[in-house]
Amino acid sequence: MKKKIISVFLAATMVIVSLTGCGGKTPEENNTTKKLDESETTEVSVADVSDVDSTESSVEGVSDVDGTEFSMAGVSDVDGTEISFWHSMGGVNGQAIDTLVKKFNDENEFGITVNAQYQGEYDDSLNKLKSAQIGNMGADLVQVYEIGTRFMIESGWIIPMQNMVDADNYDVSQIESNLSAYYTIDNQLYSMPFNSSTPIMYYNKDMFEKAGITEIPDSLEAIEKIGDKLETDGEAGEVMSLGIYGWFFEQFIGKQGLEYANNGNGREKTATEVAFDQNDAAKNILTAWQSLNEKGYAPIVGKGGDAGLADFSAGKSAITLGSTASLKQILQDVNGKFEVGTAYFPKIKSDDVGGVSIGGASLWALNNDDPKKTRATWEFVKFLISAESQAYWNAQTGYFPVTTAAHDEAVFKENIAQYPQFQTAIDQLHDSSPEYAGALLSVFPEARATVESEIESMLNGNEDVDTAVMKMAEAINKSIEEYNLVNE
Prior knowledge:
Blueprint: H1 2-13, E1 59-63, E2 69-72, E3 82-87, H2 91-107, E4 113-118, H3 122-134, E5 141-145, H4 149-155, E6 158-159, H5 161-167, H6 177-180, E7 184-185, E8 188-189, E9 192-197, E10 199-204, H7 205-210, H8 220-232, E11 238-241, H9 246-255, H10 262-266, H11 281-294, H12 309-313, E12 317-323, H13 327-334, E13 340-344, E14 359-366, H14 371-384, H15 387-397, H16 410-418, H17 422-431, H18 444-459, H19 465-486
């Protein structure tokens, strides 16, 4: 009964917000006309769909991480099994998904067929899933954005990936630890990382050279110090085109080594309130942001992760922030007008110590009480995260390879050689720590919308920093309280 209440309540109350980069509207969907040329198309083999031998016999009566039972058939029993995969990848990324699915269907030795279905943006897909599950229907595997993690865990719809990992003795050490950490709670992996990204800083190397700046700024504080040089000597129309984006706000908290919410960022147990108003994380962010804005260094360019990219690609701004998955699009839009540099996502102050958390989405197995579909789903997941598949996925999309062995693939090496800026993303991921995995919050879509609205209001001069922080906390805490009350 509790799970049905969750479904109905959230379906009615979740705010549908337009998220980019790591949320609702993915970067690749902003370029739906871009085509894959022959040089970018790579053959993917499914001969070695797993590094571990699949269990031949069925696995029954295995207790899952929630204490219920799950059953998974043996691979010899799944011939003719069809599964449905819901995803939110449009444009070029959708083409890459289709290629991977076709390879699996054509070459897997188990007789499994995957029907991949594009369900729209992340919010659209999740809301369709809610409606389907209320009617006891739905997919077998679904791609859900990272801020939907807590909701999916509490929904009662899923089979935790840890069940299948344990049943198949799968070696999870091959998964990037800073990616799997986000989806791991109490040492249990709930979903499988698939399209993961972090935000980085993009800068115009030509403008920096004109301004005589050789040390790349590592913080908002450092950016402010070189603002005048970039405007005068570097001839920048804008020092920084900084989109008002909830994901960036969360990253700025992590870069301070502070927490967004209480109860260990909602990982030790369900969060009951935000922490950013009590630990000064939000005040530090908004104070630095307001200072940049008041000096004219960071004008308002709009909401969303892509809001600042147009000014940067046009050669107007010297610096912008964006997802690692936006790299190829930025390089294509710049088209050689200037040299694009990449650096770690900035701190607030240069002496801050913290790290970044991931965005993007992961793969969730849905519990349809069908052992054959469970096995088929697991075999497909293993294929998607195999070294060959991930090297291809990275080369086509710009998302991280979630499997470390993908770095040894020729496709990956060739892509890094062609786009050396992507090495910044890899280094930043490895230099971070699982302790900065980020918060889990069931009301994250509403929270991000609130954060963005209050930052915009502050920058427009309608309220001061303290008022903006207070309003953020009050609104989000109210949403958390209402959610937790319904789901006690």
